[in-house]
Amino acid sequence: MSQNGVQASVKKGVTYNTILEAAQRPTPLVPLRKLKVEHQLQSDIYVKLEYLNVAGSLEDRTADKAFQFAEEIGVVRGDEVFVTAGGSTAISYATVAAVKGIKLTIYAPKGEFALVDTVLHTLGMPTVELPVATYSEARALTEEAAQQKGAFNLNKFTTNAAFVANLQKTACEIERAVNNKSIGKVGAVVIPLNTGAPAAGIAAYYKGTGDHGVRVVGVTCKKDTIPEMGLDLKNDLLQEYGVEKREVDEEEAYSFTRHLIGTEGIMAGPSSGAAVLEAIKLAKELPAGSTIVVVLQDGIRNYLRHFLDDDWIVANKKNVVTRKDGPQPNSTYDPKVLVYDPTKLAGEWTQDPETKAWSHSEVEFNQFNPERPLVLDTVLDAIGKTPLVKLQHVPKAHGVKCNVYVKCEYLNAGGSTKDRIAKRMVEIAEKTGKPGKLVPGVTLIEPTSGNTGIGLSLASAVRGYKCIITMPKKMSKEKAIAMASLGSTIIRTPNEAGFDSPHSHIGVALRLKSEIQDAVVLDQYCNPGNPLAHYEQTAEEIIYDMGDKHIDLVVLTAGTGGTVTGISRKIHERIPTAKVVGVDPHGSILAGPAETDIDFYEVEGIGYDFLPGTLDTSAIDYWAKSHDKESFLMARELIRTEGILCGGSSGCAVHYALEECKSLNLPEDANVVVLLPDGIRNYITKFLDDDWMNERHFLDA
Question: Which stretches are transmembrane (predicted)?
């Protein structure tokens, strides 16, 4: 291994032809170490992170398998298909249908689309809310509608698909971890129950192997009031395969899930939290040294305006403790605390004059490891190794001939590419004491547009730090709730405040740092860990996964500049003929002050009103200036036609990548890589919402 972490011989990785191919990657297992100590357990509990599936839930496996069954009997692209599903399950079916080009209509009982209707609409799938209370009634009406309209009814496969997918995939992945001695022999698998078919499939696996000592425990809600729990139980299937049933209280589940997120950084939905709660109780019943695996149904995406939102808790009179307000900066302050230059990189990172490699750094380089283990040490190890997916429809629709690959950074543990820099900055501070010493209980303060704040909130939860995030008001409420759920305090600042204002997110962070003892600002604008994370890892992943496919063009949006700087330096070092294009919104000056006046723009997470120290403009071959409308429309097109659940800055990157492809007239054998910074979770009330888009005249009449 050389000094800068480049392997002497690089093995070929893999790219995926669709996002569904990427869904075949196993989801990781993570031990709950803090909760083990807190509850004085003598057994180990591991959680299986199904929310890192491509559409965000365990049901992705079921939906993919159900459509495979349908294709085997003749269903093809363009066919009309009906299915009965709600919640995360509906999103899974809609995502698979989007990729396969199936005209899917989704039916559900009353209220079952409440948390997911905006996402389903953006995926382009019609929904029909039926005036019935149960799924059995809804399936009967779905069958009637399918017969009347001559559509294929997918319901004939859904239960069997859930059973088979979890028998063949979920259970096998757990046992692979046992077989390679990453975890001990499994004593119990705990899983939330909705239909119960996934639990039955896992139980069938263990019965089929002759291992009758593994208990499969399904968890439901006592009053069926937790979303996606116990609403469509197949009790005969549970009895046939010996699945035990346990019940939890709704409010206890909500309180515990909030605690789970803030303690372990496991960003789980309420049914998943309920399953972990029961696993803790079960651990006290099993022999010491037992291993319990909890299959997490889904993540927090659908619940940011539900149990994670204190306003919802209060409005619905739930007996759940709400969060306390954190510290606010004093109204009076010493102006000297605002003396700060965000335009200078802290520490040396220079290029070797002979080799041209960026190999001289005060910070020790991390070696690149392309492997993603089945079992991780903490959830922070689920950062990186994101899939590279070839776009099949969008480039052709826009007259682009070449191959366009997108790196799906929304599949990082915290949901964005900023998870990488948060983890790296924390690692550096823990190891070197720069820019401040980190010990449990220390307060991290960070000014951010949101995603870095989520990454640092995640790292703080796992590592035991307090965290305060200062963030402009224009950033979505979803981001704020995600950070708060991880235990951070959020302070909003005026959009119009310039970076050097005492009232800006940077100014407020500096004032708080001067007031809170031993507080540390890691400072993403100057911290070398920001570009280093992308130089050491993200760029290496791109090169590794592209293998022998030559890279002609890399297109990256720019915010702090760490992503474009780190990736560009490594790409130019390893592939000198490749060009790197930075995308900067109108209203930002990253592409150069002469390019635009400072102004407001809606796309979050990119652009700035100053040039951060982490941005090396010489590393970018040239810039494209972006507009909000085209960025959001492209993001919605990627969601609708490719099933890639990306955010607005991702749409920005792809739109201007396609413009460059056409401008350069790239041939069919050219390869372009575009990084997608984040996903839809943070923007459900923003660009996914038609009313929000119409208010800003972003939707064509």
Answer: none
